[in-house]
Amino acid sequence: MTTTTIPAPFSLPTRAEDVPAAFAERFNSGDADAVRALYEERAAFVPESGDAVHGSAEIAAANAPFLAVGLPIAVRPRHVHVAGDVALLVVDWEIEGVVRSTATDVARRGADGFWRYVIDSPFGAAPVAPR
Hints:
alpha+beta; six-stranded mixed beta sheet; about 20% helix
């Protein structure tokens, strides 16, 4: 696995494969605004419940419980498939012994050349728990 370091102060990724590392760096800093900047304005975040939230404020609120744990996240991209300016990211992640899953995310390269999440589904590839 190749690890890409995103230089401070939190530059946005210019390659789809760097989106997970950029997320981890921002998450591990504890800076909620830095995390929020990785999402398009009308992005969707799909929490474990499966009920998507949209927009900057709602996504920040959905990410807040993860940030509040105060432990680092480790990410390991499993697959990155790029089609033009859109990418499908399948990423294994873990917050240090507290929670882990496999995300199924969609990122898009904006007109500015930077990649941001359009859909962030951190539990997207995880098995569904029986109800």
